[in-house]
Amino acid sequence: MEAAARVIARRGVRGLRVEELAAEAGVSTALIYYHFKDRAGILHATLEFINDRAGRYTTERGPDEPPLDALGELRQTLLLEFQDTPEVRENSTAWGELRASAVFDPELREDLARATLVWVQEVAELLGRVRPMGGAAALAGSAERLTALVEGLSVRWLSGSLPLAHARDLMAEAVDAELERLRG
Amino acid sequence: MEAAARVIARRGVRGLRVEELAAEAGVSTALIYYHFKDRAGILHATLEFINDRAGRYTTERGPDEPPLDALGELRQTLLLEFQDTPEVRENSTAWGELRASAVFDPELREDLARATLVWVQEVAELLGRVRPMGGAAALAGSAERLTALVEGLSVRWLSGSLPLAHARDLMAEAVDAELERLRG
Predict the structure, then answer these.
(1) ipTM over 0.85
(2) Which of A48, A156, B141, B181 is most buried (CB neighbours < 10 A)?
(3) In this complex, is the C-beta atom of B97 within 8 Å of any C-beta atom belonging to chain A?
(4) A145 in B contact zone (CB under 8 Å)
(5) Which long-range contacts (CB under 8 A, 24 or more apart) does A84-93 make?
């Protein structure tokens, strides 16, 4: 799965060839087909892998760091999507590619819609902990906007239209604006 | 250029073949190479074309419609990016594709960064007419967020993760939130 995320981040979903993936992973193409059945199976598993990995790098805390409050957790989960590390770049590139490919490939859509929903719900839950009086619809709307903004800013960053530090500032201000709005 | 936008919206930037474009436009490949030199030239001209077209469909008013005030113009320019017409779908798909391809293709980046800047400045200018006391940096930040959100919501809409009417509602609320923020 790491190899698949790497190959997709390097060449895009549409450039994904099972032969290259097998070489990158150091296994045979037969083994890949055995495990994932087909290209759709590979993409499905890759999406799960990059979601799990994003879940990890947007929530991790050092052993000596004090636990975060809800606001800290909300900020961290959205801002840590903007880091200049190979892992985050690769993850973000692969996610953006799966998203862009789903416009052309209906096979990808269901998985992606489900993954988007899970992400939106996680952010809505954090927003609700900061604003316990925010209504469910308002919390969901804010979470949809914040996560869509992560996607919009990430692809600008990765395509060279937006410096990373500025993307992070824009994101931090968006969190403040949504929290202000949810105060009612 | 219409043919190029159509072919890109159908198959993606990476699926763009000059032969198919020539067939779609009903001209020879030689004529296309004569006019645009190479693939980069085609993409450059296509980006200009879709920007001009978006400029038209996000600002057009019927002859009997009263002129809009600054707030109306701001809302219209952002909300008319979400319409279920072949033109808007095609434009939005092609723009998203150029954006996603620029992650992999440095040749596209400069044009795209320039087009993004022009768009951000237009929106910042409209925001400034609604909030004349908003500082330049705050106006630019709001415009960057709103345009990045258009991109993020559009690709969700086009990839089947978000119904169009809901995308429009989310966008309208984002405009309100940014204007509230700019009130200071």
Answers:
(1) yes
(2) A156
(3) yes
(4) yes
(5) A84/A164, A85/A57, A87/A53, A87/A57, A88/A57, A89/A9, A89/A158, A90/A5, A90/A6, A90/A9, A91/A5, A91/A9, A91/A50, A91/A53, A91/A54, A91/A57, A92/A154, A92/A157, A92/A158, A93/A8, A93/A9, A93/A158, A93/B103
